[in-house]
UniProtKB/TrEMBL annotation:
Annotated source species: Rhizophagus clarus
Keywords recorded for this protein, A-Z: DNA-binding
Protein name: CENP-B homolog protein 2-like
Source species, domain of life: Eukaryota
InterPro entries on file: CenT-Element_Derived, DDE_SF_endonuclease_dom, Homeodomain-like_sf, HTH_CenpB_DNA-bd_dom
Annotated GO MF terms: DNA binding
Record-level GO cellular component terms: nucleus
């Protein structure tokens, strides 16, 4: 700094000019020292675990080399140094990445088709569609193990969940060999699921759903048979198929910063490119539907992003749950129902299928596929015989 400016500062703060000069000289040395320390830490961090104690000792080493007096590596300086050199702190655990799991919930409109006409009522107004479910998705950091999704349907599990919500959302569980920690609310940047896993799941789910609807509308056109409405059992099967199709979990874990780059380098997939491919594939499927005013793929993918899971209940919803605790579970009359098939009916249909594939000239089937069908028939036959024996025994006892 020029001498005249130093003299002005000395006059302003009522100190000697050489004191001001020494302060700026020390500042330059500190900046140079920090720069050297930063480069050293970045070089070491690729091979070693650097903690605060090591950082403090390295700082003292360079302070001595630069002959800086009256310097203490205080916690305040440590925090400032980390911020200036973008150093992040990670908790080092002894768990293998295969044993590190994360779970999160999401809401899903399970039967929603990509038609704007369908969307106009009730979703565009204040009334929200009731055909939604809550899904709890769990997987490990490497993507090698995905647990079966927990599927919560409207009304069906209200008795089971009563009194459990607060326990499962606010308390960490004390287990002997497992460490469980709940991430605080509004920490989406730390959630691998919010970073992309949920989006990947919903993309796969909607692919399965649209393919199913394409087939249903083709049957309508060719056989003049009514389009079969989706039911909750279809949604469960779609969810399983979608969850089994996801392979982008490591990238989402790495994106949050919970796991370091070095730990994830060998298993990262390019999630962004996969998301673009998903959008393009869904758009191609939507174009095959006989809708006059279809939604585009992006809107369809994100239509339920704001849908709450079980955790985001409003005060009115909590009051409603308490008031209805003694009522019978409700069902949606428009939801469709599952056809109950007896073992006798199942045997008849399997017999028809075996005959069809054995003697039809319009379709070819290899022996292994036919044997699978026959094995299924034998299993159903065994179940039918056992049920008949049990019915006979029950009538004898009565």
């Amino acid at each position: 700094m020029p001498r005249p400016i130093q003299e002005e500062l000395a006059t302003l703060y009522k100190v000697k000019q050489n004191t001001v000069s020494n302060i700026f000289l020390k500042k330059r040395k500190v900046v140079e020292c920090e720069s050297k320390l930063g480069r050293t830490i970045n070089a070491l961090i690729t091979d070693l675990i650097i903690n605060t104690d090591i950082l403090r000792e390295k700082a003292k080493f360079f302070v001595q080399r630069f002959e800086i007096n009256d310097f203490t590596a205080s916690n305040e300086w440590i925090n400032g140094f980390k911020e200036r050199y973008n150093l992040k702190q990670y908790v080092k655990w002894d768990y293998d990445l295969n044993n590190v799991f994360n779970y999160d919930e999401t809401g899903l409109y399970w039967d929603l088709e990509p038609s704007k006409t369908i969307m106009q009522n009730p979703l565009s107004g204040k009334k929200k569609s009731k055909k939604h479910v809550t899904l709890l998705l769990t997987c490990n950091a490497t993507g090698t193990e995905k647990l079966k999704p927990l599927f919560i349907h409207t009304y069906q599990n209200s008795q089971i969940l009563r009194g459990k919500k607060e326990r499962f959302t606010n308390e960490n569980v004390n287990l002997t060999n497992v460490a469980v920690h709940f991430l605080p609310p509004n920490t989406a940047h730390l959630q691998p699921y919010d970073a992309g896993i949920i989006n990947s799941f919903k993309a796969q789910y909607r692919k399965v759903l649209v393919r199913n609807r394409i087939e249903a509308y083709e049957i309508l056109q060719e056989l003049r048979k009514d389009v079969t409405p989706l039911n909750i059992y279809d949604a469960i099967n779609f969810s399983k198929s979608a969850w089994d199709s996801i392979h982008s979990t490591p990238k989402c874990w790495q994106y949050t910063g919970i796991l370091s780059q070095d730990e994830m380098n060998d298993i990262i997939e390019d999630y962004d490119e996969q998301a673009i491919r998903d959008e393009m594939e869904i758009q191609e499927l939507i174009n095959q539907l006989p809708f006059d005013d279809p939604m585009d793929a992006v809107d369809f993918l994100h239509i339920d992003d704001s849908l709450k899971g079980i955790e985001g209940l409003t005060d009115d919803e909590i009051v409603s749950m308490v008031k209805s605790k003694n009522k019978e579970p409700k069902t949606d009359p428009n939801e469709g129902s599952l056809e109950v098939i007896s073992t006798k009916e199942a045997l008849g249909r399997l017999d028809d299928l075996v005959l069809f594939f054995e003697y039809s000239s319009n379709i070819s089937i290899n022996p292994d596929e036919l044997n699978i069908l026959k094995k299924l028939r034998r299993r159903v036959l065994t179940l039918h015989i056992n049920n008949a024996k049990q019915a006979t025994l029950d009538s004898f006892i009565q």
